[in-house]
Design brief:
Blueprint (H helix, E strand, L loop, with lengths): L1 H6 L7 H12 L7 H14 L2 H13 L6 H14 L2 H10 L5 H13 L3 H13 L6 H9 L7 H14 L5 H13 L3 H9 L6 H13 L3 H14 L6 H8 L5 H13 L6 H13 L3 H10 L7 H13 L4 H11 L6 H14 L2 H10 L7 H13 L3 H10 L5 H13 L3 H13 L6 H14 L2 H14 L6 H13 L3 H9 L8 H13 L3 H14 L4 H12 L1
């Protein structure tokens, strides 16, 4: 009866019609049977209506069908699709005679939401209960083995796959390539890939992507070239997205761009977005913009808009704001990533008024932790320390990034007392200062000429911070010593800098101090080191020439 009503013009499967059906059943106007409920649950699953899903679950109990195995399967899938994983698990645990499809559905639900440990725990329970995994179950479980800690689980699943006779299936082999790569075994992943007898494009995409994600950019490019040379498979949009993320050379990028044009994929929105990112990363914003402009307005999604806005924002370019306004006029709604990029642009441009306008438009994203930190950093950068402090005090959770923003703001504006008070409060609240915190603290000490405090904090960094003092830490101390005329001590400090932190900036700092105090010989030595480290520094050559002439 319910099926007939649902097929009638009055009751189709739209959300409003489904709600009407649920209300009719609830009122007792319709008495559905098990088949009717399965149809209703399937429609609710497609529409992803969580409130109605919970009502249907209650109605199933009221009609005495909670023990029906098929309805139980349908309910689990419905709650998974509607995003209520706890209710899905509650129903799952009550289903009798669970088949491998239902086990896989629940295991996948945990994995897709990032609950990898829960996913693998459920996999182990499935095996203990004697359910025999199939190809899809194996692939689903492997997706949850995504960090070095889960390598043992992944290796065990690999052994089970071999025992089941599915080891030569290309889908399973590709999943194993991904698993070993995510668990940090890139060499084993590569060996697995080259052991696949019939590599399809999905397998190629997997090995290129994992190399790109792990920072093996040269290997990712080499694999792409190998794919082209093999000639049996044509790159698809996923191939280009993966390899473009690994491109760090303009010549290679232009080659990839040319290949995407030849493949007819250049203006596919995902490939275009990857091209925009790649050109912007190499400093070629004009090419990024030309690709962006070639896509029709209706073909641009929020990810592409965000890529172009982010590219301008990273350069502190006001065009990021103009694009944001254009995006809104065309009916594309900003998301969290949009606001993060724009707030970064406002900070870089020190544009308080635009920052305030953005703050008023953020809406529900204001609850986001990163948005709160970006707003705080923007107000601090724009000199509105009282607004930054107000935001900071109202944050339910303050990370080291939040504290660093406040410490940096007070240091930048010379509020020494607040710098040291914030550092103390930070430590009292159990937040451990990091290397970035102490760059701000040392910068404040340098600006105020506080030698004792500067030395104390610098020694703390050397003893307690995991990252050995960086170029920035040394730079602050050398600047402090130089300002106070302690040039011999400053030079000794430059000479003790580890090779990994060596930088022409440190010698330039010493050079400037030497000129201020008229120490020509020390200035000559500093200028020589600047030239060694940065042969293009013309100012250092001038100093050397003047020193010799003198």
């Amino acid at each position: 009866m319910l099926q007939a009503l649902a097929k009638s013009p009055r009751f189709d499967s739209s959300s409003s019609r489904l709600r009407d059906l649920v209300n009719l059943i609830d009122a007792g106007s319709i008495r559905p049977d098990a088949a009717d409920f399965r149809r209703l649950i399937a429609d609710c699953t497609d529409l992803r209506l969580l409130h109605e899903a919970r009502c249907i679950h209650s109605l199933v109990h009221r009609h005495g069908l909670a023990g029906d195995r098929l309805i139980g399967n349908y309910l689990v899938k419905m709650f998974v699709r509607c995003g209520d994983i706890d209710r899905a698990r509650e129903v799952f645990d009550r289903v009798s005679a669970r088949d491998v499809i239902l086990w896989t559905e629940m295991i996948a639900a945990y994995g897709e939401r990032g609950y990898f440990q829960e996913s693998l725990e459920l996999w182990k329970i499935m095996r203990l209960e004697g359910a025999m995994p199939d190809l899809i179950a194996f692939v689903t479980a492997l997706k949850s083995c995504c960090c070095p800690a889960s390598l043992g689980d992944g290796a065990l699943i690999h052994w089970m796959i071999l025992e089941s006779g599915l080891g030569s299936n290309v889908i399973v082999e590709t999943a194993l390539v991904n698993m070993y790569a995510r668990c940090g075994r890139i060499e084993q992943a590569t060996a697995m890939f080259f052991g696949i007898s019939h590599r399809d494009i999905v397998a190629w995409n997997a090995i290129i992507a994992v190399n790109a994600e792990r920072g093996h950019f040269g290997q990712a490019m080499h694999l792409f070239h190998s794919l082209l040379l093999e000639g049996e498979r044509s790159p698809n949009k996923s191939t280009y997205v993966a390899v473009l993320s690994a491109c760090r050379d303009l010549h290679d990028l232009k080659l990839l761009h040319s290949c995407s044009i030849h493949s007819g994929l250049e203006l596919h929105v995902e490939v275009a977005t990857a091209l925009v990112h790649a050109y912007a990363q190499l400093g070629h914003l004009s090419i990024s913009r030309s690709i962006f402009d070639r896509l029709l307005c209706q073909d641009r999604d929020i990810v592409l808009w965000n890529a172009m806005i982010e590219a301008y924002a990273q350069e502190g370019d006001r065009e990021s704001i103009a694009l944001f306004r254009q995006m809104q006029l065309l009916g594309c709604h900003p998301d969290r990533a949009t606001f993060l990029s724009l707030l970064s642009a406002c900070s870089a441009m020190v544009d308080l008024e635009e920052g305030k306008r953005l703050h008023s438009r953020i809406g529900s994203c204001l609850e986001d932790f990163q948005i709160q930190n970006s707003l705080l950093a923007m107000y601090a950068r724009c000199g509105r320390l009282e607004l930054a402090q107000l935001l900071f005090d109202g944050m339910p959770e303050r990370s080291v990034f939040s504290w660093n923003s406040m410490v940096a703001a007070y240091a930048q504006h010379g509020h020494l007392d607040q710098v040291f008070q914030s550092l103390k409060r930070m430590q009292n609240e159990g937040v451990k200062p990091d290397s970035v915190t102490f760059v701000s603290v040392l910068s404040a000490c340098s600006g105020a000429g506080l030698l004792v405090e500067g030395r104390s904090h610098f020694e703390f960094v050397k003893r307690h911070i995991r990252e050995w003092p960086s170029t920035e830490h040394y730079g602050c101390m050398i600047d402090l010593l130089g300002r106070l005329g302690r040039l011999e001590e400053a030079e000794r400090l430059v000479l003790e800098v580890p090779d990994k932190a060596a930088d022409a900036v440190l010698w330039r700092t010493l050079l400037a101090a030497s000129r201020t105090y008229g120490d020509l010989e020390r200035g000559r030595r500093a200028a020589e080191r600047v030239v060694d480290l940065d042969p293009d520094d013309s100012a250092a050559y001038v100093v050397l020439y003047n020193t010799v002439a003198t």
